[in-house]
Amino acid sequence: MWTARWTFVVVWFVFASAAALPVGNAEATDFGCTNVLGRASVAGPTRTVAWRAGIEARTAVFYRLPGKSIGPARWLAPTDAPWLLVVARPRVADDRCWLRLRLPWRPNGAAGWVNANNVVVEKTPWRVQVSRGRRTLTLLRGGASVRTLSVVVGKPSTPTPLGLFAIVWAIPWHPNDFLGSWVLELTGHSDVLQQFDGGDGTVGIHGRGGASLLDPLGSARSHGCIRLANDAIDWLVATVGVDRLPGTPVQIS
Questions:
Q1: What would the pLDDT profile of 141-169 be if each residue is shown by its tens digit?
Q2: How far is Cα 12 from Cα 160, in angstroms, rounded to an integer?
Q3: Are β-strands 119-124 and 126-131 bridged in parallel, bridged antiparallel, or unpaired?
Q4: Does residue 46 come out as left (phi exceeding 0), alpha (psi in the -120 to 50 range) or beta?
Q5: What CATH superfamily is the domain 126-252?
Q6: Longest dimension (CA), the chain
Q7: Exposed end of the chain (fewer CB within 10 Å): N or C?
Q8: Model's pTM, two decimal places?
């Protein structure tokens, strides 16, 4: 399902990074991070504001704050994600400033610490809320609802996963294809399907076309993805901006 995304990796990353401020121009609440982040209240997402981190180069990821004897758990590159959601206040360890990010791989809710010197940070007022029960998607700006849209969510045997996720990629697609006009890949993965359609069970928000039109909006019939009408997802992308979507928090409840 996601194999075509690599065509867009370089294009979207360069485009998104051009609008970002260097980390040195941002602010932090942790006094020990002020030399890196400045003085703004960088923290985990709230209903009104969130911070996203742009991945500029391959960087080490630590599952707990690193010390001199702790090696990296994994490595993160721009090809893994152009922007990721900051999920906690910055911390100081081993004489460096660290940011905790929502990671794009399993398990759902995975988070890790990266060196703040290796990313750029940017504040965003945007937030997406998905209700499985009401089968709706609501876009918020600064905590205020902008618009609520009817969606298709996962069926009972393959439910849309619950939790706090973030958009990883915003990929233009084909309006008449099953995935519709846009695919917004999330950090979330199916809790049931370990693999699907050639991918690793990644969940996304996407449009509707072809056979997916057979499942009416407001129903629970997908394999876990969230489907919107093409004109609705076109509006969502245009409203937030394709370069500002990656790193946007998505709360699914």
A1: 999 999 999 999 999 999 999 999 999 99
A2: 26
A3: unpaired
A4: beta
A5: L,D-transpeptidase catalytic domain-like (2.40.440.10)
A6: 57
A7: C
A8: 0.87
